[in-house]
């Protein structure tokens, strides 16, 4: 199964992110990420056998993460495949350290594929028609977090769906 590690936004923040997605969609077109799918990916694990997924779920359930708060203050985009996101203007140190620590553990679990860079972002639009976010007023959101999720991604009737398989203990 296709897996990733993510932070899931608390309900109030999810609503704010959904409003931003709506605003971005009105201006830039494309496909809006459904509200219940909004997340921050910390590590993309790719396709994993069931036995390994179960081992990873047990690991996540025993691995608290440091509590933190991520400040979202910038729009951004990836040209391919037309992704429009919100994230931060400058790299967030706590998230960068968390991502590195998670990959160290993942490599111990035999998961390869650590990326050379990490740009924390919340994808709001896919296949946007335009990527010019420069004139949109910048977001100003705080994301308090203290729990990691192991999430399975699958396709259902042409739509990407996510299922949380495990959560870390609350820090
Ligand atoms: P995206 O939002 O920027 O597309 C589930 O697919 C999550 O894993 C998404 O957040 C997605 O990032 C990310 N993801 C999907 N494929 C990936 C890949 N090949 N490398 C890194 N991240 C990926």
Structural summary, described in words:
The radius of gyration is 16 Å and the shape is globular. The chain starts with a strand and ends with a strand. It has one domain: Cyclic Phosphodiesterase, Chain: A (Alpha-Beta Complex). The model has no long low-confidence stretch (mean pLDDT 97). It is built from 3 helices and 10 strands. A hairpin with a 2-residue loop joins strand 9 (149-156) and strand 10. With 171 residues, it is an alpha+beta fold. It has helices at residues 11-28, 50-61, 93-108, and strands at 2-7, 31-32, 40-47, 68-72, 74-78, 83-87, 121-126, 141-145, 149-156, 159-167. The protein binds adenosine-2'-monophosphate. The site of adenosine-2'-monophosphate has 6 residues, from strand 3.
Descriptive keywords:
about 170 residues; alpha+beta; 10 strands; about 35% strand; binds adenosine-2'-monophosphate
Q: Largest sheet at a glance?
A: 4 strands, antiparallel
Fourth-level CATH superfamily: Cyclic phosphodiesterase
Shape annotation: globular
In terms of DSSP E residues, the strand content is 25-35%
Number of domains: 1
Summed up:
With 171 residues, the chain is of the alpha+beta class. It has one domain (2-167): Alpha-Beta Complex (Cyclic Phosphodiesterase, Chain: A).
Helix-strand blueprint:
Layout: E1 2-7, H1 11-28, E2 31-32, E3 40-47, H2 50-61, E4 68-72, E5 74-78, E6 83-87, H3 93-108, E7 121-126, E8 141-145, E9 149-156, E10 159-167
Antiparallel strand pairs: 1-3, 1-9, 2-7, 4-8, 5-6, 6-7, 9-10
Bound molecules: adenosine-2'-monophosphate (2AM).
């Amino acid at each position: 199964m296709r897996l990733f590690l993510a932070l899931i936004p608390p309900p109030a923040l999810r609503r704010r992110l959904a409003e931003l997605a709506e605003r971005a969609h009105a201006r830039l077109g494309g496909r809006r990420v459904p509200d219940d799918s909004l997340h921050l990916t910390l590590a993309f694990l790719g396709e994993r056998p069931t036995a390994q997924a179960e081992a990873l779920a047990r690991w996540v359930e025993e691995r608290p993460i440091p509590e933190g708060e991520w400040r979202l203050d910038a729009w951004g985009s990836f040209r391919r495949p037309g992704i429009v996101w919100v994230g931060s203007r400058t790299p967030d140190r706590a998230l960068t350290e968390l991502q590195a620590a998670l990959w160290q553990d993942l490599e111990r679990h035999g998961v390869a594929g650590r990326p050379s860079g990490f740009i924390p972002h919340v994808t709001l639009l896919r296949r946007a028609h335009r990527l010019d976010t420069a004139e949109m007023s910048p977001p100003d959101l705080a994301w308090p977090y203290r729990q990691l999720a192991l999430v399975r991604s699958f396709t259902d009737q042409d739509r990407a769906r996510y299922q949380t398989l495990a959560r870390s203990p609350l820090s």
